[in-house]
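Example 4.3 (complexes with small molecules)
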Amino acid sequence: MSHQLRVATTISVLASFALSACATPPPGLDVSLERTSAAGRYVVSLVPPSTPPAINQMHSWMVKLKDPAGSPVTGATLAVDGGMPQHGHGLPTKPRVTREIESGTYLVEGMKFSMPGWWDIKFDIQSAQGHDKVTFNTVVAPLTARR
Ligand SMILES: [Cu+2]
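Answer. The structure with copper (II) ion bound is encoded below.
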């Protein structure tokens, strides 16, 4: 093996190690797309894009809000936050809920994931039902890292 080739091999091994370390979520991570909010005021469903977005591709999600009896919650105000708990950084963008598409279904614009791995997505919810919070986990796969 030439010296040059050995260096290239070492670099690619290091790079793949860094990538796999970055993309290993904790075992048993709950990635369910429907959750009850912390105080039980809402049942929240997260609707990701039908095609997983590429790394660094701007995209939109939908959030559906229901009360515990199953009726859509309209006229809510939602704030979006999140990040990578294993890396200690937040979202690379400031996503916003821009409008209510239909009764109880809200559009979240400006979502972007800058690397594969475990991300959490948090919503702070305010409506006539009261204030509450919910956190979702999502794992961005390295295979979607098309540019
Ligand atoms: Cu990260």
